[in-house]
Amino acid sequence: MEFIWETPTEIDVALAQRLKRIRKFKKLTQKELAARCNVSYGALKKFEQSGDISLKSLTKIAMELGVSGELHRLFTEPQYASIEEVLRDGR
User: Fold this and answer.
1) Radius of gyration in angstroms for the set of CA atoms belonging to the chain, rounded to a whole number
2) Whose CA is closest to 58, among 49, 67, 31?
3) Rounded to 5 degrees, what angle do the CA atoms 38, 57, 78 make?
4) Other CB atoms within 10 Å distance of the CB of residue 71
5) Cα–Cα nearest to 39, from 27, 26, 52
6) How far, in Å, CA of 43 to CA of 57, rounded?
7) So what's the pLDDT on residue 2?
8) Are 31 and 41 in contact, with CB atoms under 8 Å apart?
9) pTM (2 decimals)?
10) Which SS3 state, helix, strand or coil, does residue 25 take?
11) Are 59 and 68 in contact (CB under 8 A)?
12) How far apart are CA 15 and CA 7, in angstroms?
């Protein structure tokens, strides 16, 4: 069993902060980004503060910020714990 150092909320908030930095780097206000990706301003503001958002809205934000490829790569590569698991997978 893997020990989890972060809580789900901590992971969500860290993700929100990374996307907030990307938004600011692109010189977009929250209202501008919300309008461009068709996510309510309130939902975007809440996300950046708490990490709480629907998956659909997260995807829309990622697409507008040009980072949707990272969502495509989530969970695509198995995390092997041993060589036996690699051999059993047979890729």
Assistant:
1) 17
2) 67
3) 145
4) 13
5) 52
6) 8
7) 60
8) yes
9) 0.80
10) helix
11) yes
12) 13
Predicted local confidence at residue 3, as pLDDT: 60
pLDDT for res 7: 92
Q: Are 16 and 39 in contact (CB under 8 A)?
A: no
Domain range annotation of the chain: 8-89
Instruction: Give the span between the Cα atoms of 46 and 43, in whole angstroms.
Output: 5
Name the stretches of the chain with pLDDT < 70: 1-4, 90-91
Checking phi first, is residue 38 left (phi over 0); if not, alpha (psi -120 to 50) or beta?
A: left
Exposed, middle or buried by CB within 10 Å (0-12, 13-18, 19+), for 53? buried
pLDDT digits (tens, 9 = 90+) for 57-73: 999 999 999 999 999 98
Structure tokens at 91: 């890729």
Token pair belonging to 19:
């996307």
The architecture of the domain spanning 8-89 is Orthogonal Bundle (1.10)
